[in-house]
TrEMBL record:
InterPro entries: Cys/Met-Metab_PyrdxlP-dep_enz, Cys_met_metab_PP, PyrdxlP-dep_Trfase, PyrdxlP-dep_Trfase_major, PyrdxlP-dep_Trfase_small
Class of this enzyme: transferase
GO MF annotation list: cystathionine gamma-synthase activity
PANTHER family linked to this entry: CYSTATHIONINE GAMMA-LYASE (PTHR11808:SF15), TRANS-SULFURATION ENZYME FAMILY MEMBER (PTHR11808)
Keywords, sorted A to Z: Pyridoxal phosphate, Transferase
NCBIfam families named in the record: PRK07811.1 (NF005871)
EC number(s) given by UniProt: 2.5.1.48
Keyword 4Fe-4S carried by entry: no
Keyword Transferase attached: yes
Species in which this protein is naturally found: Lacinutrix gracilariae
Name of this chain's protein: Cystathionine gamma-synthase
Family per similarity comment: Belongs to the trans-sulfuration enzymes family.
Cofactor (UniProt): pyridoxal 5'-phosphate
Amino acid sequence: MKFNTKVIHGGQKPDPAYGAVMPPIYQTTTYAQTTPGEHKGYAYSRTHNPTRNALENAFAALENGNFGLAFGSGLAAIDAVVKLLKPGDEVIATNDLYGGTYRLFTKIFASFGIKFHFVGMKNASTIESFINSNTKLIWVETPTNPLLQIIDIKAIAAIAKKHHVLFAVDNTFATPYLQQPLDLGADIVMHSATKYLGGHSDVVMGALVVKDKELAGKLYFIQNASGAICGPQDSFLVLRGIKTLHVRMQRHCENGKAIAMYLAAHPKIEKVYWPGFDTHQNHDIAKAQMKDFGGMLSFTTKGNNYEEAIKIVEKLKLFTLAESLGGVESLAGHPASMTHASIPKEEREKIGVVDSLIRLSVGIEDEVDLIADLKQALE
Ligand SMILES: *Cc1c(COP(=O)(O)O)cnc(C)c1O
């Protein structure tokens, strides 16, 4: 089945009770049993819920996996993956990581005796020197946030296989429309479904997809035992969102490209971070592993002035100044004062998050209006 058909039908069939085409919102905690232990496959909604299961099947289909799991947030999904480990185990993670993931690793799991190495992975072979007999997990985000670096999933997968290390990819920015990490050799794909999969800025949710049955069994055990599941209403909303993922992503990519080109030609702009430029450091890898370049981009202005950047984001009218990304509406963010404000100036400048850096989540409005909005804000 082609991807554009999968987003509508993948893992879905009409509800067995009355043939409802969309799965009903099974807003129930428990299920009647005929005799103790005998039921229709559902005993308690932390363990299984038909609406959530419909969504989990859709997640699995989109990522070409065999098993999908839905969680109450993206971070809850990551939390479940790290719980596969035990004290003494080591993790190698991308250094340009989503802030919440970094916080979960360093402020929660580090104190349980798990060791994390944060490594630049623009060149995949860099990670080899960090692998030892305790290494159990490689955690990668690509494209990265907010600098849109690209990491070679296939190359990392080869290294992970060679050393028998589990390899997980946070596929939130790309979505399965643009890249399918399991097909490139990853063991686990993770999503903040809060972003593009939900797509309408109205649900917080996380997802995992795997191919391997034994690994799936361990993750289902953690999902049920730790209990960070999502509710049936949210499951329904994300399932509805997914049905337009391909048409939304196509427009996100078209608008992202138009804005990247506009900004690159603007006299006030210093640099535009977007993997579609052939001058981008890993443009060839992006071209090989992604179908298109996505709707996320960042830029800096000449002179690198903090106050000027604040003024630009304040003057934007169609781009809403807000955290998050991946919804139908365009959003702008200023990492230095928002997502990366807690990092000392010197350290954040070292990783490239300078004072004038502005990040855009380009929505699916008309590009003419979006460019006009940027034009007036830059004047
Ligand atoms: C938002 C985000 C997360 C965290 O997901 P939540 O749903 O907010 O818990 C993880 N990774 C990336 C890349 C994200 O953008």
